[in-house]
Every structure is written in structure tokens, then in C-alpha cells.
């Protein structure tokens, strides 16, 4: 019953009629306006400036609410207003008073925001500016956004690390205070955006694994609360924004899946429901390749998380049946993928064939892990898979697809690199690729993977099975010293 009600959100017909009593923007677009003030549903859904007779233009948030708190932000008609054009609401704090904050804000707009999503995502993800609008309305989100800028800059200028900690600590402190005073509903747009920025900052530092886990899990719980609010029509969803958040939770969970001592307890059913409800813009043929983060069917990233979880369990707990079920799911997904991309990566729907080559790295990595977990792994077969995978890496050249903190190929490179232990030429290929990744996304998580691979390659023990070293033998011994300072 709940699922049917949720799916009605997606089937809601869009307004097509001209209005004479609605906002100026709906009249201009000849659309029917539902006259929700201060921001109507049409303007909220499309990220437009909502203006009414006798009022200034009002900024939009991703999802408009039935009842808005006082003090809405007033801006110019720009989707991404600059600090000079912003009139802050009386409930907020002008976080951009200092030159330092203004510099970090502009750096976010020009250098950080483009890397929050894939380079070939649908244009709406580049133009909507949800995080910028939210930060200009909520000082706590602005603190998190500035922390994100500072942590990105710290890769090139280490002194910005303290700046990042300062802004991030302020954001955490303010949010904790509001939670303690029970001022939050738990469905706010700015709150889930804050969590996204929080786990990005934590992944960059990568010195508190529990915080990464908590923030990813909290984002998953809020996603569920938002679904219930959509069902009760307390929120009107912006499909593109909801898609971005759900993909971010799934992607970042998969990126760190092999690095966490405990698996993240995100609800796969909640994330999957969100992805089903809120598809990316565009026609059916290119909808997946233009998604904001994943680029292919979400099933691949669900498989990454689940096979990682299974691999990190003790052999006595793992169970051969669970491994075989995952292998069957993977086989089905792989067959569909290969049918759609049977020309070696030249998918006509995807603007960059090298991205598809990168997805094939995931295929080799999952196959290597599953062949070990299902106890069908033979040394000669594994070596052939590693050689084939390194050939793909060679075809990709210096291509890197960054998602701000963790490059897309860090997870498969960790698996392939570990399996390559003892194959020196293949190890060198993986090492050079990780150096390319490090230059583009030098986060703590990437540094940890590089250190972890080095320790797998150098590990001296029984046998020469790099995957066994990664998954079990000496894992605690190689994990602890690899944590970046």
C-alpha cells in the first residue's frame, strides 16, 4: 500500500495550463501555478526564481514545503546568486562577511561543485545550484560548504586543513544544538545536504571511520523520512535533487566499502525505492548514462557493497550459498551490460567510452572477488583476469572521473591491485593509475588505498595471494598503520 502511494508521486501529471493569477514565472512559461507562496511548486521543481506581484524574487529550495519558516531568502533572479546580491534572512548569520569565507564560497562554485557530480551528467545537475541556494539560506549549511571547499584546497595548500576543521566543527556543533533542542523535523532539505557534505569532508580526512559510517546511515534514515513526507504530501519533490541525494549515498557507501571495519547499515530498500521513484531527466535511452553519479544501473553499486561486506566476513560466517546468490545476480547484470555495450565500450548513448571502460574494471574486480568467495578461484584464471583488467587500465590512459573525494576507480583498483600481487608488470600499471588518481583526488581515502595496496604487495606470509591478504591474512596488521595522519 505504501509503495503504491509512493509511486503516485512519480505519476502526478505536470500542469500544462496557462494561469492568470499565479506567479510571474508561471505566467511567462504559460504553466498553471498552484499559487503556493512564497515559492510555488513549479518554480521549486524547476529551480526557478519565483516572483509575485508586489514582491521581490524569492530563492528556491529543492523541495518546497506546505508551511515555510519565516525569513525566506530574497535574491536576484540568478539560480546561483553571488554573495554581493544576497540579502540574508533575519534568522540566519551572514557567513560571507570575511574575505576568507567569500574566497572559499567562490572556490566552491568554480572548483568544488563541478566535481560533486559526473562530468557527463544531465545539464540540470550543473545548473540547479541546490547546495548553493541552501547554504545562502542556512548558515549551518554554509559552514559545511565552506569546510568542503577548504578540505579540497588542503590537497594543494595544507594550511587549509585547519580552516576546514574550523568550519566543519561549527557546522557539527550548530546541528547538534538544534537536534538537542528538538527543532528539526528530520526531513529538511538543508539537513540532508549537510549530511552529504559531512560525509564528503569525513571521507577526505579519513581519520574517523565511525563518523563516515554514522553520516551515511543518517542520510539513509532521512531519505526514508522524506519518502513518508512525499506520501503525506508534506513535501513536493524535485526529482533531480532526490535522485542526486540517493545516488550520492549509494556511490559513497560503495566507494568505502572495503575500507570500513564495520559495514554501513544503510537501507538498500530505501535507496532503491528512491532511485525507482525519481529517475534522471532525459529520454529512456540515455537516462542512466546522464545520471548525476552512477552512470549505469544502480545494481552494480549495490553488488559492490554486498560483495565487499561478504568478503570482509570471516570464512565461517560468510556462507557459500550467499556468495553463489551474489554470483548469480552479478552474472545477470553483467550479461545485460555487455549486451548494451557489445562494441568494447563504444556505447552510442554514453558521451565518453572511457567511462564504460572504467565500468569494466568493476566487472573484473567483482569477478575476482566472487571467484574467491565461491571457492571457484583458480590461480591461472585469476592471473588472466588481472592481465585483462590492466589492459583496460592502459586503454583508459590518464582518464580520471572524480567524485570530489573518492575517484570512481579506487574500489576496483584496490581489488585488482591486490589480486595482482606477484605479477610485477600488472602491479606497476595499477601503481601508475593510482598516482593519476592521487593527483586528481588526493583525499585521505585515496591515500589509505595507496598505502593499503603497498602493504598488500609488501606483505610477507604464507602463499602469494594478495586478495587473501586484503580480506583476511594480516588485515588488521596492514590497516592500522595505513591510516593517514
From TrEMBL:
Classify the main location.
nucleus
SUPFAM superfamilies, per the entry: Zn2/Cys6 DNA-binding domain
Looking up Gene3D superfamilies in the UniProt record yields: Zn(2)-C6 fungal-type DNA-binding domain
Q: What are the residue boundaries of the Zn(2)-C6 fungal-type domain, all occurrences included? A: 22-52
Any Gene Ontology CC annotation: nucleus
Q: Where is this region: Disordered?
A: 54-78
Tell me the superkingdom of the source.
Answer: Eukaryota
Q: Which InterPro entries match?
A: Fun_TF (IPR021858), Zn2-C6_fun-type_DNA-bd_sf (IPR036864), Zn2Cys6_DnaBD (IPR001138)
Q: Where in the cell is it found?
A: Nucleus
Q: Name one GO molecular function term.
A: DNA-binding transcription factor activity, RNA polymerase II-specific
Indicate whether Glycoprotein appears among the record's keywords. Answer: no
Which keywords label this protein? Nucleus
| Pfam families named in the record | Fungal_trans_2 (PF11951), Zn_clus (PF00172)
Task: Name the residue ranges with Low complexity bias.
Answer: 54-72
Q: Does the keyword Transmembrane apply?
A: no
Q: What is this protein called?
A: Zn(2)-C6 fungal-type domain-containing protein
Question: Which species is this UniProt entry from?
Answer: Phialocephala subalpina
Amino acid at each position: 500500500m505504501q509503495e503504491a502511494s509512493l509511486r503516485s508521486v512519480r505519476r502526478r501529471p505536470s500542469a500544462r495550463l496557462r494561469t492568470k493569477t499565479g506567479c510571474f514565472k508561471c505566467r511567462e512559461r504559460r504553466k498553471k501555478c498552484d499559487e503556493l507562496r512564497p515559492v510555488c511548486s513549479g518554480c521549486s521543481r524547476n529551480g526557478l526564481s519565483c516572483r509575485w506581484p508586489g514582491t521581490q524574487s524569492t530563492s528556491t529550495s529543492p523541495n518546497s514545503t506546505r508551511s515555510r519558516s519565516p525569513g525566506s531568502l530574497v535574491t536576484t533572479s540568478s539560480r546561483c546568486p553571488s554573495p554581493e546580491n544576497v540579502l540574508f534572512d533575519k534568522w540566519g548569520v551572514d557567513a560571507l562577511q570575511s574575505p576568507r569565507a567569500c574566497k572559499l564560497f567562490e572556490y566552491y562554485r568554480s572548483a568544488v561543485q563541478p566535481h560533486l557530480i559526473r562530468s557527463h551528467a544531465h545539464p540540470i545537475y550543473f545548473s540547479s545550484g541546490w547546495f548553493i541556494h541552501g547554504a545562502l539560506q542556512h548558515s549551518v549549511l554554509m559552514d559545511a560548504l565552506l569546510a568542503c571547499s577548504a578540505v579540497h584546497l588542503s590537497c594543494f595548500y595544507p594550511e587549509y586543513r585547519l580552516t576546514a576543521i574550523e568550519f566543519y566543527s561549527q557546522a557539527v556543533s550548530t546541528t547538534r544544538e538544534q537536534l538537542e533542542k528538538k527543532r528539526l523535523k528530520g526531513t529538511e532539505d538543508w539537513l540532508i545536504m549537510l549530511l552529504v557534505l559531512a560525509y564528503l569532508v569525513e571521507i577526505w580526512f579519513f581519520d574517523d571511520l565511525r563518523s563516515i559510517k554514522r553520516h551515511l546511515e543518517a542520510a539513509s534514515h532521512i531519505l526514508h523520512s522524506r519518502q513518508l513526507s512525499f506520501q503525506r504530501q508534506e513535501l513536493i519533490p524535485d526529482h533531480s535533487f532526490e535522485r542526486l541525494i540517493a545516488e550520492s549515498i549509494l556511490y559513497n557507501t560503495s566507494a568505502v566499502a572495503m575500507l570500513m571495519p564495520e559495514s554501513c547499515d544503510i537501507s538498500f530498500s530505501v535507496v532503491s525505492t528512491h532511485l525507482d521513484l525519481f529517475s534522471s531527466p532525459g529520454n529512456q535511452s540515455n537516462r542512466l548514462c546522464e545520471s548525476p553519479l552512477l552512470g549505469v544501473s544502480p545494481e552494480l553499486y549495490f553488488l559492490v557493497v554486498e560483495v565487499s561486506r561478504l568478503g570482509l566476513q570471516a570464512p565461517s560466517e560468510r556462507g557459500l550459498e550467499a556468495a553463489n546468490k551474489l554470483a548469480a545476480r552479478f552474472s545477470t547484470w553483467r550479461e545485460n551490460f555487455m549486451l548494451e555495450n557489445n562494441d568494447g565500450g563504444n556505447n552510442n548513448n554514453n558521451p565518453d567510452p572511457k567511462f564504460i571502460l572504467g565500468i569494466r574494471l568493476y566487472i573484473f574486480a567483482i569477478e575476482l572477488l566472487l571467484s574467491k568467495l565461491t571457492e571457484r578461484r583458480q590461480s591461472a584464471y585469476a592471473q588472466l583476469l588481472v592481465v585483462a583488467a590492466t589492459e583496460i587500465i592502459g586503454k583508459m590512459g590518464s582518464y580520471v572521473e572524480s567524485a570530489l573525494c573518492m575517484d570512481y576507480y579506487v574500489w576496483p583498483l584496490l581489488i585488482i591491485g591486490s589480486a595482482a600481487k606477484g605479477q610485477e608488470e600488472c602491479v606497476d600499471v595499477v601503481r601508475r593509475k593510482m598516482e593519476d588518481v592521487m593527483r586528481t583526488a588526493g583525499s585521505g581515502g585515496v591515500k589509505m588505498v595507496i598505502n593499503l595496496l603497498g602493504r598488500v604487495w609488501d606483505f610477507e606470509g604464507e602463499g602469494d595471494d594478495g586478495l587473501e591478504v586484503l580480506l583476511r591474512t594480516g588485515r588488521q596488521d596492514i590497516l592500522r598503520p595505513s591510516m593517514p595522519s
